[in-house]
Amino acid sequence: MMITQEIASEKSISSDVIFPPSDLYSDEPPVETELHLEQIMLLIKCLKWLWKDRTDFYAAGNLSIYYSPHQKKTENFRGPDFFVVLGTDRKTRKSWVVWEENGKYPHVIVEILSPTTAKTDRESKKELYQETFRTPDYFWFDPYTLEFAGFHITDGKYQPIKATEKGHLWSEQLGLYLGIHEGLLRYFTLEGNLVPTPEETAERLAAKLRKLNINPDTI
After folding, report:
1. Phi and psi for 99 in degrees, rounded to 5?
2. How many CA atoms lie within 13 Å of 80's alpha carbon, on the beta-carbon side?
3. Side by side, which strands form the sheet with 108-112?
4. Among 62, 154, 158, 167, which one has the highest count of C-beta atoms within 10 angstroms of its own C-beta?
5. pLDDT number for residue 137
């Protein structure tokens, strides 16, 4: 508010389709606010840092997913704010094209609510992710009101995920909790520990070194 990388040749694609670049800013409409952008980038950065040794997943944000049953990029596409596909190659892509990715759809989707998208995220997108994508874990979060909800597919239908005492929601697909920390959606381990960003990890290491009377700036 993501097995092959090759995209169909431009000759077979209608001229009215513009494919997204291989970074956060894609063919999708721009994110609505700086806070929305910060939230999307935070989810991507933290997961990639936590799973830095893994090569079997793809995580992206605001990137088009093409899923036409006719394998046409001129129809049936959506751009979730954040999504994760498991059991795939970790590599750069210009878009996620289902029929070129062994039929894989996202295993986890997070939509960042806004006044203009909230109704769609709660209703039509939820139905799409349940009925067509069959995405096991779906969450939405509003960084302004802090509305946070999560759903897991059980017997073909989304059922609300029960929150812990801290308000965290478990993602079976990620093996992590999602919860609000300082106004933003973050990951938490099974033990309830906050999954740090690379910068937070560096700050913690520097603090430990200082306790040992070691200046981290001189190492």
Report:
1. -75, -10
2. 33
3. 57-60, 82-86, 108-112, 137-141, 148-154, 157-160
4. 62
5. 98
CA-nearest of 116, 138, 114 to 127 is: 138
Query: For the chain, which ranges sit under pLDDT 70?
Result: 1-31, 209, 219
Burial class (CB in 10 A: 0-12, 13-18, 19+), 206: middle
C-alpha to C-alpha distances, 154 to 69, 104, 150, 161, nearest whole angstrom:
25, 19, 13, 11
Q: What's residue 75's pLDDT?
A: 85
Measuring CA to CA, which residue among 81, 139, 131, 134 is closest to residue 104? 134
Collapsing DSSP to helix, strand or coil, 156 comes out as: coil
CA 173 to chain centre: 12
Read off the pTM.
Answer: 0.82
pLDDT value at residue 13: 39
**In terms of residues, how long is the chain?**
219
Type of residue at 183 = G
Q: Which two tokens stand for residue 153?
A: 């597919």
